[in-house]
Design brief:
about 250 residues; TIM Barrel; about 40% helix; binds 2-phosphoglycolic acid
């Protein structure tokens, strides 16, 4: 399966900063990117267009959105509809990132609606899942993965081939510098793979599973070599072209 190297820029970068980083990424990554890899950047809304322009002509560099509201349009002050993102050249959206779940208060019902709506609008969805530290300590990793996958996909109906990716991101490893060990990642990804097979059948076996949580140039190669790791979702270490290029080419 091909590997997806995804950058989540969160609430960082003005348009000019985003464009400069996107250009650095193309310059440093494109000439050596292995044929089975794709780069995907999730900038803040305001920089999506600038990043898309910087990626013009690069078939294996894509742009996604970190968030959206699951309606076509309407009286939703402050929100952005998927069709507005399509208009900017976005093909992907993130749903269920731990900061949306645990900082911004998005719950399973809304996340299920967002997954289903984005897929119906023709987007590719990266559904993020992962346990908190107290859930890990209580031996509940598999239960949390099962629950978040089942809930997130509960309204989705038939999912087109290639339209879904899952990112396993243990909450305690995001932005903390603490990366899950290889054994923990292997176990969580194998469990996620089995569960996706149960829910989606054959398609579940072809769904990319990304690891996220303190991925850095120093650990990317080992993580990317693990079974059932089909890519990475990178926050802090994706903010410069130099750092992200070492991950994308690891
Ligand atoms: P991090 O963030 O790489 O800074 O831990 C990952 C993420 O939030 O997707």
């Amino acid at each position: 399966m091909k590997k997806l190297l995804a950058a989540n820029w969160k609430m960082y970068k003005t348009r000019a900063e985003a464009e400069a980083t996107a250009r650095d990424m193309v310059r440093l990554i494109a000439p050596s990117l292995p044929a089975d890899r794709e780069v995907l950047v999730f900038p803040p809304f305001t920089a999506i267009e600038a990043v898309g322009l910087a990626f013009a002509g690069q078939a294996r560099f894509g742009v996604g959105a970190q968030n959206f509201w699951p309606r076509k349009e309407g009286a939703y002050t402050g929100e952005i509809a998927p069709r507005m993102l399509a208009d900017l050249g976005c093909a992907w959206v993130l749903v269920g990132h731990s900061e949306r779940r645990w900082v911004l208060g998005e719950e399973d019902g809304l996340l299920a609606e967002k997954v289903a709506f984005a897929l119906a609008e023709g987007f590719k969805v990266c559904l993020c899942i992962g346990e908190k530290i107290e859930e890990r300590r209580a031996g509940r990793v598999e239960e949390i993965i099962d629950g978040q996958l089942a809930a997130g996909l509960s309204a989705a109906g038939d999912i087109a081939d290639g339209a879904l990716a899952v990112a396993y991101e243990p909450v305690w490893a995001i932005g903390t510098g603490e990366v899950a060990g290889p054994a923990d990642i292997l176990h969580a990804h194998a469990h996620t793979r089995t569960r996706l097979g149960t829910i989606l059948g054959e398609k579940g076996l072809r769904t990319p599973i990304l690891y996220g949580g303190s991925v850095k140039p120093e650990n990317a190669s080992e993580i990317l070599s693990l079974d059932n790791v089909n890519g990475v979702l990178v926050g802090g270490a994706s903010l410069t072209g130099e750092s992200f290029s070492r991950i994308a080419l690891a």
